[in-house]
Give the backbone structure.
Amino acid sequence: MPVPAPGATCGSLAGDGFCDGVNTVAFRANLTLPLKDDFAVTRLDHDFGQKWHLMSSFRYYHLLRATDDQVDIGGFFPGDTLGTPASLSLIHI
């Protein structure tokens, strides 16, 4: 496991409002938060006659974003490495 920040305990961090009682050794690391988005547009135009026209369109957008709400640093889940932080929570938009 990664070593804690020197001299950091939950009591020493309590004044900054970030101490949640879980990350008591103040582990800090860079975390990749990838984005994946899909976008599509389809349009259909057709003339049935001089006065009858049809226009239809469809738009699709999907965003999948990783967040830092839950982080695995122990390598417990498949694909994660011990000591390397990996995001466990995703937001679907």
